[in-house]
């Protein structure tokens, strides 16, 4: 992918944030130390940013180059595992840390590969509360005994959970049902029901004897920054 295309994608990302009233050209100028006219010319495609200038914009907006890559480009360069056949799609199992923090999964991170019917995978709806197009959508986790206690018996030790990382919204997937999520805490995944109350995430257990857990949302962050993805299938060992 060429540098010009990266700049175009950065411009589109900033324009979306300005349209959503999350950002203004003046605010971006103050954050970067550039003149407002310089920022305006970039946003209007009248000039490009230097490599140093682009790095500065990425830093203040908490973006990475991965956020600017086209999803097709990422998938093409991150091919994993054996080829898929016509009816099945490969879904990779990874560590809890990689599931929580790594957008693009590479071969060295994969601990196993499972096949899911494409008819099942394709009917699952996405709901991205933040830009996640470049994240590998589905990953699998093997749940440990410690991770399973709060969600027992819905999730048990040894369960395999399918995570849709393109669903990091708190909106219910089905009316009247609580979504179950993988939530990031200190670089790892917790399995829980999730609600937001002011500046906190409430991690509600399924097991009635387990306590309610609280996570404070840090300044500058939102709830979706902590949501790894929706649990869309649980497979229990027998």
Describe the structure.
There is one protein chain. With 238 residues, this protein is of the alpha+beta class. Helix content is 27%, strand content 24%. The protein has helices at 3-19, 25-32, 36-43, 51-60, 71-77, 96-101, 118-122, 145-148; strands at 88-93, 112-117, 138-142, 160-164, 180-185, 188-197, 200-204, 213-216, 227-235. Helix 2 (25-32) crosses helix 3.
Topology:
Layout: H1 3-19, H2 25-32, H3 36-43, H4 51-60, H5 71-77, E1 88-93, H6 96-101, E2 112-117, H7 118-122, E3 138-142, H8 145-148, E4 160-164, E5 180-185, E6 188-197, E7 200-204, E8 213-216, E9 227-235
Helix pairs in contact: 2-3
Shape: globular
Amount of helix = 25-40%
From the N-terminal CA to the C-terminal CA, the straight-line distance is 47 Å
**Strand-and-helix sequence, N→C?**
HHHHHEHEHEHEEEEEE
The stretches of 5 or more residues where confidence is low (pLDDT under 50) are none
Quick tags:
238 residues; single chain; alpha+beta; nine-stranded mixed sheet; globular
Give a short overview.
It contains 8 helices and 9 strands.
């Amino acid at each position: 992918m060429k540098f010009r295309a990266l700049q175009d994608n950065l411009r589109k990302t900033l324009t979306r944030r300005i349209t959503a009233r999350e950002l203004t050209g003046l605010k971006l100028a103050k954050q970067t130390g550039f003149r407002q006219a310089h920022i305006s010319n970039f946003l209007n495609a009248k000039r490009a940013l230097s490599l140093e200038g682009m790095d500065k914009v990425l830093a203040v907006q908490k973006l990475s180059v991965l956020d600017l890559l086209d999803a097709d480009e990422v998938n093409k360069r991150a091919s994993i595992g054996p080829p898929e056949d016509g009816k099945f799609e490969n879904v990779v199992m990874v560590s809890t840390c990689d599931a929580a923090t790594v957008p693009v999964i590479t071969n060295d991170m994969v601990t196993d590969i499972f096949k899911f019917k494409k008819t099942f995978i394709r009917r699952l709806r996405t709901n991205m509360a933040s830009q996640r197009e470049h994240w590998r959508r589905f990953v699998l986790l093997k749940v440990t005994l410690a991770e399973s206690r709060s969600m027992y018996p819905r999730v048990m030790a040894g369960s395999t959970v399918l995570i849709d990382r393109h669903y990091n919204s708190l909106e219910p997937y089905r009316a009247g049902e609580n979504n179950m999520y993988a939530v990031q805490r200190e670089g790892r995944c917790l399995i829980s029901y999730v609600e937001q109350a002011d500046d906190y995430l409430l991690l509600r257990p399924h097991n009635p004897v387990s306590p309610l857990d609280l996570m404070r949302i840090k300044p500058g962050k939102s709830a979706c920054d902590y949501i790894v993805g929706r649990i869309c299938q649980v497979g229990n060992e027998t």
